[in-house]
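Hi R.,

Here's the chain you asked about this morning:
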Amino acid sequence: MQGLESLLESLIRRLERLVERAEALLPAPPAPPDWNAIAFRWRGRLEPVRHPHRIRLADLKGIDEQKAAVERNTRQFVTGKPANNVLLTGARGTGKSSLIKGVLTKFAKQGLRLIEVDRDDLVDLPAIVDLVAGRPERFIVFCDDLSFEASEPGYKALKSALDGSIAGAPENLLIYATSNRRHLMPERFAENRESVRSDDGEIHPGETTEEKVSLSERFGLWLSFYPFSQEQYLDICVHWLSVFGVDAKSALAARQEALQWALQRGSRSGRVAWQFARDFAGRQ
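And the predicted structure, written out as tokens:
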């Protein structure tokens, strides 16, 4: 009997040593988020953005109606009033992403925080919701340049997070997304012909189309952005030239060069105007 007890004690000591060695090989548990940051990226955990892109709402020209709507919705959110998830769609380079960064700059001191989540990481939305629930800050989950195929797992995760999960969304979190696609998903001409049998045997293809539209409709505030006119584009160029220290006379003389710059890029957008202003100011 005494020999059996000694054998058991020896086995227990060996097991303890094995457990200690195994624990030494395991990665350290992730550090808690730095809640002092105002912007984060989700990479399986919240990583603080040390130098967020700060842009003023006053620098965004040609989108006054959209800017007023997003600013009003965000103000309601940070003051604890009811507010909506937001979808910004339309022409590229017109300020959709900059508008979301601008409201962060404006309301960060009031407790607003931004969490940037890539499309492929949207499956982690439930984990993000659990992480920030109960925090005193107000969080916007920012999904930039969003588009899906119906089979992607992030599509269903976002749909559930917006409206459709058994778990209610926390009152301190909203989702702001931008997309060049109005309904976030590719649409085909054949989907408009319900009377034509679909190639994959779908009996009611119209219902498939409704499924695609339903995702975008779950955003309470839906704003469209349109290409700028020539005068709007030139006004934006003049504004950024002024910001970069170019005097009014030189900015006025740069109009023709600004138009040529836009023609070379095939776009009159706020992004192109900003790029021109940086180039022109740098050459002065």
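The CA atoms of residues 260 and 266 lie 10 Å apart.

Let me know if you need anything else.
M.
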